[in-house]
Design a protein that fits this description.
The complex is a heterodimer of chains A (about 450) and B (about 260). Chain A is built from 20 helices and no strands. Chain A is an all-alpha fold. By secondary structure, chain B is an alpha/beta fold. In chain B, helix 9 crosses helix 10. Chain B starts with 9 loop residues before the first helix and ends with a helix. Classes of the chains: A mainly alpha (about 450), B alpha/beta (about 260). At the A-B interface, helix 11, helix 14, helix 18, helix 19 and helix 20 of A face helix 2, helix 3, helix 4, helix 5 and helix 6 of B. Chain A: InterPro entries: 4Fe4S_Fe-S-bd, 4Fe4S_Fe_S_CS, HdrC_iron-sulfur_subunit, Helical_ferredxn, NarG-like_sf.
Chain lengths: ~450, ~260
Amino acid sequence: MEYIPNIIFAIALMLGVGYFTRNVKKLIRNIKLGREVDASDSKAQRWKNMAMIALGQSKMVKRPIAGIMHVVVYIGFVIINIEVLEIIIDGLFGTHRIGLEVLPPSVYGFLIGSFEILAVLVLVAVAVFWLRRNIINVKRFLSAEMKGWPKNDGNIILYFEVVLMCLFLVMNATDTQFQELGSGNVVSQFIAPWFEGLSPSALYTIERTAWWLHILGILVFLNYLYFSKHLHILLAFPNTYYGSVEVKGKFNNLETVTNEVKLMMDPNADPFAAPAEGDVEEEPAKFGASDVMDLNQIQLLNAYTCTECGRCTSACPANLTGKKLSPRKIMMDTRDRLEEVGKNIDANGGEFKDDGKQLLGDYITNEELWACTTCNACVEECPVSINPLSIILDMRRYLVMEQSAAPMELNNMMSNIENNGAPWPYNQQDRLNWANEV
Amino acid sequence: MSEKLRVPTMAEFMAEGKEPEILFWVGSAGSYDDRAKKITKAFVKILNKANVDFAVLGSEESNTGDVAKRAGNEFLFQMQAMMNIEVLNGYGIKRIVTCDPHSFNCLKNEYPGLGGIYDVIHHTQYIKELMSKGRLTLEGNTYKGKRITFHDPCYLGRANSEYEAPRDVLKKTNATLVEMKRHKSTALCCGAGGAQMFKEPEKGNMDINILRTEDALETKPEIIATGCPYCKTMMMDGVKFKEKEGEISVLDIAEVIANS
């Protein structure tokens, strides 16, 4: 009988971690639906980016208020989770506060004391975040794409954090042994009096309940991640690693196009040449992207990493002047469509069945795509190295090269370039006329 | 500009069996657009004054294909790029300067992958270089004490992290530089990039160049300086829209320096 809690704990832990692992595998499978992309270059720079941007939060603090609050929650989250290690050991082996047995009381007290202080700081930061989202109404949280689930998601995460922090503090406050130790209860000593007068067994029950709810809550939260924008706490790391190491102005040159252009410009190429014997007739590559499978794996990782903070959108010149384009929506749409495709695959025994839908048109409209000035403000703003611009460009490529669906004025501009080597209908021979004008 | 500009072409250099120090990539706007041509001429005036042995391609130059690429037409871009690379490599060009940040970015970052590898610099960087080598000195005090605000072109600033060269050059005029709230990496686009220059904007509540002009007007400038022919057009239109063209002039840095 005495092992029942240990067994229940082990089962809960297995279920929690197991279900999470299952979803992570699904996430990786979905990302791999994208085109492969080579990111084996610049390893040192990539590690540095990850250390600075994800671990060091260097871009978060560009906006000081939200940035500093975020750093508090981030540090709180990472450090308080050391406590989870103790909880897991205690849970599995039926010990109580194993840390006290292996560490000197002063060291243990220092650790728990810092956790308690951080817990309070996290509560303060979370309160500020809640106010920003619900009362102060910071503009970037009010955009059209933030209605419904995205708004609730943001709040649910905050409530989770409040509950987890409170349970942690109550757990410490009602642990008589820990309070008597008098080391590390920097915050909980002020909460302990609220429970004065309760019988030792009642206190024990509250302590155990808080302990169990705390760890179960963490496991539930872990599994909530996959369904939430909060995935960024994990994916920010790979995402900043795989983020671009080139200057922002450099857009990729499509290799498939290069091959065709070279063939076109090669005077010795025979366009009617029969394929060499043994050559398998390859399906012509699709230019640009109309659905998530046409995007590359880094772009899909970007989509799952987006935490919908909207810094991109708040800096986007098109969005600031009332156009429909919102870089954040581009990322959310990409993620939502990818999830839809993933569910389709699950429902059809591992194979995608055409659902008559695609990212272009059903999620992202041409109007949004054509409003982009390619100014890179969104890329500059993103605190976790997401590049919405690359998705916009790939979709424009599809519109132009597969559908000839550019706005009329752009078609005129492009045929001018083709015919006269300038976007306007001027003769190339007149290109130097300016030199003779006064 | 009373003196006649000296604008030798690459073909002339070739005929004489000589090599220029640098190739001046004029770009489509700089060749044909009236407001941009003023930038081109001002820059040539600077080059002439500094006795730079430069050349242009003239009618052998064609559009870089940058705007086609941003519009999504990778085919057209690569065809333009390969044609230009053939010409540039044929002449053995090593160094290129241009007044257009879009050409600058495209030649510098996107041509190498297609076989066109050059040392490409923006004209503000080249002017800075000429000044620091003592080849170009400013005599006049045309802009002394004038309030100038500089609008960062996206393809020079954010795209290539060059924020200082234009400012360093402007400081040499002894003007008072005032910054807009959004500047350097947070600068707002003028609204012309990504092929917007060639189309009507999508439905919204304002044009981007008006918003950017408002940013500039907040600094109460006498001059809005730009470093891109498209930015210049957009800001001029914005100033005109605000009916401030009597008080505020929009000038490219090349024009500011040529007048100094």
